[in-house]
Amino acid sequence: MNKIYKAHILYTKDKAHFEVLENGYVAVGADGLVIGVAENLASLGADASQFCNKTPDVEVVDFGDKLLIPAMNDLHVHASQYRNQGIAMDLELMEWLQSYTFPEEMKYADTAYAERMYRRFVRDLWRVGTMRVCTFASIHTESTRLLMHLFQEAGIGALVGKVAMNRNCPEGLSEPVEKTVKGYESLIEETFHGTSLSPTPPYPPLVRTIITPRFIPSCTPEMLRACGELAAKYQLPVQSHLSENKDEIALVQELEGTWYGDAYNRYGLFGQTPTVMAHCVFTEGEEIELMKRNDVVAAHCPTSNLNVTTGIAPVRQFLDEGVRVGLGSDISGGHNLSIFQMMVYAIQLSKAYYQLHRERPYLTLSEAFWMATKSAGSFFGKVGSFEPGYEFDALVIDDSCLNHDHYSLLERLERYIYLGDDRQILHRFCRGKEIMETKILK
Amino acid sequence: MNKIYKAHILYTKDKAHFEVLENGYVAVGADGLVIGVAENLASLGADASQFCNKTPDVEVVDFGDKLLIPAMNDLHVHASQYRNQGIAMDLELMEWLQSYTFPEEMKYADTAYAERMYRRFVRDLWRVGTMRVCTFASIHTESTRLLMHLFQEAGIGALVGKVAMNRNCPEGLSEPVEKTVKGYESLIEETFHGTSLSPTPPYPPLVRTIITPRFIPSCTPEMLRACGELAAKYQLPVQSHLSENKDEIALVQELEGTWYGDAYNRYGLFGQTPTVMAHCVFTEGEEIELMKRNDVVAAHCPTSNLNVTTGIAPVRQFLDEGVRVGLGSDISGGHNLSIFQMMVYAIQLSKAYYQLHRERPYLTLSEAFWMATKSAGSFFGKVGSFEPGYEFDALVIDDSCLNHDHYSLLERLERYIYLGDDRQILHRFCRGKEIMETKILK
């Protein structure tokens, strides 16, 4: 059944400014795609009788004084580090990895443990309004499969990566290339995955496998080659880490005899299929050029940039030069799962960056919002906007507790982003369907 | 009546590490002061019969698996900018001041408006667990008086500053020196203020006036002199802003013919009575020396440092050199009222600072916690610790929703600081008394 939603509608068609529709309407088809968005019913091609529910084929919902905005997209997070969210945050990177991160990821050999943690992870993504996520799981095929099923059951869109790694890591997290390939192939065979080669009609499956070499230092050339071949053969997207810190960049140069992006590129892991790279803190010059040419998406993870003391990604430069950028929570390098808070931190870090380098202005609210919605959403399909043809991924925000003194609609949105939390999210939609707090999400 | 509280107790005697008492006890006298804290009743000088409520003079409360920690102290915030929290965050400083801050502060000439806003402000401080605050009000004496009464009624400790300013500001925010002096004197006469000259027994009034020249550029020499005289005459503490940005520092040099801290010092506004200075971003060399010599406290406001693009205060240096430091939310330059979140940002900014300058390690969790509790608390009396003789300012944290996988007590505290919010604060105590959600706090 078609639906018409009435509310104060805010979204970004482009990064420069918001579309603001006071008491606006958005019409959504039975297929979950936006039919139209307008300030009144007539412009929507609807009439009052439809809005009064007098026609049988339209259901109308009036959200009154609430805000209706696109849902959040998280382009980089480690599901298997969820237990470690918000602990050991003042440790140095190597101690953090060896004492916390790797031992934790090993536990996911146990699917019972994985299920307990992954349920919380999926539930909490739902809570904070993230309806699409691009996530690392662990090396373990069965736990990864379980995570995919949880997302499928919840109705949340996810690209889930079994992690490929076979060097520079503890024995329990190393997997031979052949086993990794077999693992991927068994995940690709999942029923909800069947149509991954034909992304019509009208969109690909909600939950899919994403090829996930951890990063170049933890994969042998054979593993990287196998990953590239899997991506090409099954037309699967790719995610990994890029140029996060200088030691890592030097190590890649030593291991692969070339610069970081080029190394991925040689293995078919840099835009040959849709690719997202996390961090890109020290990405510059020819690496930016190659990202642009290959349409590689940068996942900016501002809390991680701070917590892990990597430095600050040059996001303004990415935007100016036309590199696609989205935001990532990067749990557990990042500590906060909310993409709204990633917007706040992205603006704040751009100010810190501006202070250091002066030559570029810092990020505006509309730019941060656009990165979190339409720009990041583009990695999942036509997601993150209310323009016609977009999948209706949306949040209804009841900001009455923050809206005590006649703020404008944009001020209300800004206050929600800066001050709000999951308590104010009243409804969540993914691909047109309301995602309720079902058993899996409790 | 004396009380004994049982819970997992965490606090910091010094900045280097936490005191952690699993299933510990803290005894609090009828005067609101801590009698003792220990891992068992015997060490506390109590016995089981007391704990079983079998003696009439002790009431015992068992908080079970909850965390008991000192309450938060906010050393710098602008109550009259509360409406502007979380809006216009991507504006440049001058536009932000002229279009948002000054017009907002002018509204406080209207006590009805002030009451509406200040009630929300006091309520929200309560919510986030801040039991002591050092706040700017506005130039308006009656609104300032009203804010003092609200704190008094709520039972929350506050140093409330009527703002002195008479140059470089809009006409509606300028007040002649004589009127400012009269205003202060009328506030000092408030009944709850009567004992301000004799801080025994055993502690000063919970709510007091604090002398508050906005900052040097907005006060003529006559105003600064009058402020210094008021502080000396009535033995009142002082708060202001110091060395927040370079243009401001140059302007002070031009106006006063000396460096910033020295200018305050010449007017008796730099430690002659207890003094807290916000920001101190560019404080160095002789200014640090003078702060140390005069025991001037620095209020570090990390979100404000980021949002207002001032730069990052050298907090590690303050700690190493023995300058007292506390944390401030600095609403509305800062956007977040929670001092827990200020700890997170303080650690993160110290990491950004470390990246720039390398020579000093970044802040640890215990250092951030100590700054927010015992170090900041020292500005209000013996506040911020559970050592004997300290005023019992405390929060009881029910972190069960975050504590799903066998974390240590310190990890639980860290997770609460990084991930938690007001929902997990179950009880709040100020000076021994539980501060309930009364009418004023609704």
Class by SSE composition of chain A: alpha/beta
Mean pLDDT of chain A: 92
Largest interface: A-B, 43 and 43 residues
Strand content of chain A: 15-25%
Shape of chain A: globular
Kindly report how far apart the N and C termini of chain A lie: 28 Å
Rg measurement of chain A, Å: 21 Å
Number of helices of chain A: 14
Low-pLDDT residue intervals, each spanning 5 or more residues of chain A: 194-201
List the helices and strands and how they pair.
The structure is a homodimer of 442-residue chains.
Chain A: E1 2-14, E2 17-28, E3 34-38, H1 48-51, E4 58-70, E5 72-78, H2 93-106, H3 111-127, E6 130-136, H4 141-154, E7 157-161, E8 163-164, H5 177-188, E9 207-209, E10 212-213, H6 221-234, E11 238-242, H7 246-256, H8 260-266, E12 275-279, H9 285-294, E13 297-300, H10 302-307, H11 315-321, E14 325-327, H12 339-357, H13 365-377, E15 394-397, H14 409-419, E16 425-430, E17 433-434
Parallel strand pairs in A: 1-4, 5-6, 6-7, 7-9, 8-10, 11-12, 12-13, 13-14
Antiparallel strand pairs in A: 1-2, 2-3, 4-15, 15-16, 16-17
